[in-house]
């Protein structure tokens, strides 16, 4: 289970609070690269243990201001990673890619992708269903995916979970740019 580090446990607790709608979004300007780096560092024990390479690509211009709730966005990114890593569980090695981008409307998108395992049809149909606990990753992945969607909605955005030619993509888009 991808829950060894204290940071990931904290983020999952924050995600559960968000799913239960116990925490509203509080927006502020953040340093997106720093936030992503903190989340990725939180996965260091799992990365080493499971031979998972996490690659970060940012297509966000340096002058682009990002105005989300940093704790919620961190929880959503952690949640997307937990759910994606559940899909590649058991592989000898894997690569997961995080892409931060800007939408045409100057919003922000965060995507977590892997190109090793094509998700089952049930995953594509029920990715955000919090009652589907027998999915890859179990209850942690169910809460995680629900949190990704709730974070997006709390910011006036949206979340998607799709299959790709060789893997999966979990992404949230929020109108958080300026």
Provide the fold topology.
Elements: H1 6-19, H2 32-42, H3 44-50, E1 52-58, H4 70-87, E2 94-102, E3 108-114, H5 121-126, H6 138-154, E4 158-163, E5 168-174
Parallel strand pairs: 1-2
Antiparallel strand pairs: 2-3, 3-5, 4-5
Helix pairs in contact: 1-4, 1-6, 2-4, 4-6
Brief overview:
By secondary structure, the protein is α+β, with helices and mostly antiparallel strands. 41% of the residues lie in helices and 20% in strands. The protein is built from six helices and five strands.
What features would you describe in this structure?
The protein has 178 residues and is of the alpha+beta class. Helices cover 41% and strands 20% of the residues. It has 6 helices and 5 strands; from the N terminus they run αααβαββααββ. It has a 5-stranded mixed beta sheet. A hairpin with a 4-residue loop joins β4 (158-163) and β5 (168-174). α1 crosses α4 (70-87) and α4 (70-87) packs antiparallel against α6 (138-154). The longest helix has 18 residues, at 70-87. The radius of gyration is 15 Å and the shape is globular. The termini are far apart.
């Amino acid at each position: 289970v991808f829950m060894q580090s204290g940071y990931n446990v904290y983020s999952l607790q924050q995600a559960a609070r968000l799913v239960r709608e116990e925490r509203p979004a509080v927006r502020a300007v953040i340093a997106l690269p720093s936030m992503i780096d903190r989340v990725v560092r939180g996965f260091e024990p799992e990365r080493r243990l499971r031979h998972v390479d996490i690659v970060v690509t940012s297509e966000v211009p340096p002058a682009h201001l990002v105005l989300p709730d940093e704790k919620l966005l961190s929880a959503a990114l952690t949640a997307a990673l937990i759910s994606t890593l559940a899909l590649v569980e058991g592989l000898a090695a894997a690569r997961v890619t995080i892409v931060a981008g800007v939408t045409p409307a100057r919003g922000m998108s965060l995507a977590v992708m892997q190109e090793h395992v094509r998700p089952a049809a049930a995953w594509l149909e029920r990715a955000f269903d919090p009652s589907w606990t027998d999915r890859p990753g179990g209850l942690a992945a169910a809460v995680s995916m629900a949190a990704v969607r709730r974070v997006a909605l709390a910011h006036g955005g949206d979340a998607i979970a799709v299959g790709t030619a060789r893997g999966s993509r979990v992404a949230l888009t929020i109108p958080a740019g300026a």
